[in-house]
Amino acid sequence: MSRTKPAPEAGKPAGSPPPGEPAFLVVGKLQRPHGLRGEIIMEVITDFPERLRTGVTVYVGEAHQPQRIRGRRIHGRGLLVAFDSVSDPEAAGQFRNQLVYVRSDDRPSLPEGEYYHHQLLGLSVESDEGQVLGRLEQILGTGANDVYIVRPEEGPEILLPATDEVILEVNLEQGKVKVHLLPGLLPE
Q: Which of 71, 106, 141 finishes a domain?
């Protein structure tokens, strides 16, 4: 689950993200200018698009250039966004194909038992019988449920469905995921 938080308010310290946390999280990708008022089409890459509202500061491109959202509206499967600093299509064009970020310290909290993908990546994966399987390397979204790709020290990767039947416990403090191995989940 990729979930995301606006820049800190004036007077509040920005602070650093906790160890292992990224400073910024991707929430969208700008595509191309639209119309004559400086709007640009944005593909939404967040579970919280409602946070991308007028007045919110986002960070554009690898340089994380701050841009305040002047306006937004739904457009097909994405959004049309306008930034305070942009008033025409030529100026909007400078942001073509750039990623849009929010600060990680400004992401919404999740319900108990739900985690952001970046919190899970790199965790050690162990079976409920104590067998160390490897590190959680990648998470695939399949529609029905996510699939965790675990990379062992040796041998082929292990694909684990992220279901309650398989994923028994996530312990971020210990850096571990405890799983129950159903028949057929381990490669032969």
A: 106
